[in-house]
Inverse folding.
């Protein structure tokens, strides 16, 4: 029976006729993952208890932890920001004036192969710490505030209130969609010049936002990268929280929110005493430095406890989580060898020519709508089976957290192949960031890069398998807890959660299928 199943799985793997591709997840590994997923699903079939809040677990302060130490010492954080800004400016210079060969230029190699994978990996271990040293925000702050680290004067910005229509993360979602279109449709990832222009655009947007609106509206509402990290940080075991909640409850001055004479207020309008989720925390350390009671520290908590039970769902956040999943899966789909053939046939059918942007845009819209439609139908079915007097959008938002671990796990599993194979030769690019006097990689060099990844195939397969299983397990757990809260009785909750589990299973199987396929090299 196992041999028959293995043969069936093997027939699902696309075999490209030619071209250099990364190998997919071996069939034997996929079979093992399927068996473990079946075990996790079986373990989740126990009856639900209605109204169960789920255990968020205990949090333990890192009083003398390295992260708290970094935030308490302003010069260290400032030094890190200066280093990141210097690297960012080097990327700009390399992109604008260096070689157009993407694999020989620091701008494309560092941005798309190293940084984007590393920053998503980092969110699991250190939350949104990247936002604390983000060069876009740092450069914008220095330009507008005209100070390296002290609080800027009131006259340095117009300080306007963000319009009500923009006080949500819809702008960030639309930016994410636009960046995906530029990355995959226009081909920004293989153009050092376009990469540099895009980086400059982000600084311009951050600077204009800081000069016009109060605090850091770009970080809070508009930045697609920051909101992605903010959404994922609910799975992290680290978060900034009060050491003693009673101290925060009795605080009347709220320096964490208003700041002090020397320290900026919270850039995203958070009050530490009422903080239940880290979605909008940028880990800037302002609350740590301004608190007169020294009552803020990094906390260690169970993995995923925030999005399982603590986070409060909002509709814009729910759509962003769903958009993350749809765009992440779409990104993986476009890296498959058959994507180009699909686009060619679609272009012939609609009379598209040139760069096939119309065909790509249609394919992108259809791919996103498939995921969105599947989730919308899942929520409708859950609500119908639950027989609860709760509006549709409340169920939609409450269950949307299941999309985050599914998106996160596939995002990393997919990018792992790019990282371990295409990062080969990174230090030679660092030594010659502009790629002066270099030529594109020869077929022999491409073959050597392909055959000599930074990690062995078994290690990559193990990590990808663990990531898929992690996303599947956490999504199942979120669905159980969220559904138990919504339903009036355990029987209804147990029945109503089945469509959510089916959605999780379909998405996880789709992720596995994509990981099985050979993947086109990006550069």
């Amino acid at each position: 029976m196992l041999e028959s199943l293995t043969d069936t799985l093997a027939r699902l793997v696309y075999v490209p006729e030619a071209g250099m591709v990364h190998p997919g997840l071996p069939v034997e590994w996929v079979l093992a993952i399927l068996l473990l997923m079946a075990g996790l699903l079986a373990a989740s079939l126990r009856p639900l208890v209605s109204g169960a809040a789920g255990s968020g677990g205990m949090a333990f302060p890192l009083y003398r932890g390295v992260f708290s130490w970094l935030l308490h010492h302003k010069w260290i954080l400032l030094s890190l920001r200066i280093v990141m800004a210097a690297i960012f400016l080097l990327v700009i210079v390399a992109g604008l004036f260096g070689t157009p060969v993407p694999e020989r230029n620091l701008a494309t190699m560092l941005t798309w192969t190293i940084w984007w994978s590393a920053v998503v990996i980092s969110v699991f271990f250190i939350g949104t710490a990247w936002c604390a040293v983000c060069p876009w925000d740092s450069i914008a702050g220095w330009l507008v505030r005209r100070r390296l680290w002290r609080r800027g004067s009131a006259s340095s910005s117009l300080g306007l209130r963000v319009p009500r229509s923009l006080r949500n993360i819809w702008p960030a979602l639309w930016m994410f969609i636009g960046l995906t279109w530029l990355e995959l449709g226009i081909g920004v990832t293989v153009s050092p010049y376009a990469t540099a222009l895009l980086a400059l655009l982000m600084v311009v947007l951050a600077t204009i936002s800081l000069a016009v609106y109060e605090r850091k509206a770009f970080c809070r509402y508009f930045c697609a990268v920051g909101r992605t990290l903010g959404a994922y940080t609910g799975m992290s075991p680290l978060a900034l929280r009060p050491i003693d909640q009673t101290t925060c409850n009795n605080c009347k001055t709220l320096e964490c929110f208003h700041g002090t004479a020397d320290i900026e207020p919270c850039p995203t309008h958070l009050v530490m005493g009422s903080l239940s989720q880290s979605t909008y925390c940028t880990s800037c350390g302002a609350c740590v430095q301004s608190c007169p009671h020294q009552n803020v520290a990094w906390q260690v908590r169970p993995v995923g406890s925030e999005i399982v039970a603590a986070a409060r769902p909002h509709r814009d956040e729910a759509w962003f989580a769903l958009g993350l999943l749809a765009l992440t899966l779409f990104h993986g789909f476009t890296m498959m060898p058959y994507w180009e053939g699909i686009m060619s046939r679609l272009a012939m059918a609609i009379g598209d020519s040139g760069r096939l942007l119309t065909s790509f845009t249609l394919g992108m819209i259809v791919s996103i709508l498939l995921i969105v439609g599947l989730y919308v139908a899942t929520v409708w079915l859950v609500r119908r089976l639950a027989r609860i007097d709760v509006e549709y959008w409340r169920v939609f938002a409450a269950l949307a957290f299941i999309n985050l671990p599914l998106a996160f796990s596939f995002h990393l599993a997919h990018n792992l192949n790019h990282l371990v194979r295409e990062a080969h030769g990174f230090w030679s690019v660092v030594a010659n960031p502009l790629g002066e006097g270099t030529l594109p990689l020869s077929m022999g060099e491409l073959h050597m890069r392909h055959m000599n990844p930074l990690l062995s195939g078994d290690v990559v397969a193990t990590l990808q398998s663990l990531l898929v299983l992690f996303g599947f397990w956490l999504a199942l757990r979120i669905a159980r807890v969220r559904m138990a809260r919504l339903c009036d009785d355990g029987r209804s909750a147990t029945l109503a959660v089945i469509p959510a589990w089916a959605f999780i299973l379909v998405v996880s199987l789709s992720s596995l299928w994509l990981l099985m396929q050979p993947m086109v090299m990006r550069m």
Q: What stands out?
A: Residues 416 and 460 are 7 Å apart (CA to CA). The chain has a mean pLDDT of 86. Residues 357-386 form the longest helix (30 residues). The first strand starts at residue 21 and ends at 22.
